[in-house]
Design goal:
Elements (H helix, E strand, L loop, with lengths): L28 E3 L5 E3 L7 E6 L3 E6 L4 E6 L14
Bound molecules: zinc ion (ZN).
Length: 85
């Protein structure tokens, strides 16, 4: 019979300072004060291209000519800040 872990969140580092498992911080994009999602590197708006595999949202930065893929789950965690432009 399998034993159920007594501590649902286990530290994987010996220091014990590791935080609970969290979604990675979003640094590639941010939501500007006008509501647009912008590419952090160039401050340009990124264009929504579609959904991949029902889990990832695909955006494209026309300035950098680069795809930006975001897991759908992190959308609520995109940081907001004033746009530089
Ligand atoms: Zn860009």
């Amino acid at each position: 019979m399998a034993t159920v872990a007594e501590h649902p969140v286990k530290s994987t580092k010996r220091s014990g300072r590791r935080r609970q498992v969290e979604a990675p911080r979003i640094v590639t994009v941010y939501i500007a004060d006008d509501g647009d999602i912008r590419h952090t590197r160039c401050e340009s708006r990124i264009a929504f291209m579609g959904v991949r595999g029902r889990q990832e949202l695909d955006f494209y930065c026309w300035t950098c000519r680069e795809h930006v893929t975001l897991p759908e789950l992190v959308l609520a965690d995109i940081p907001q800040r004033a746009s530089a432009r």
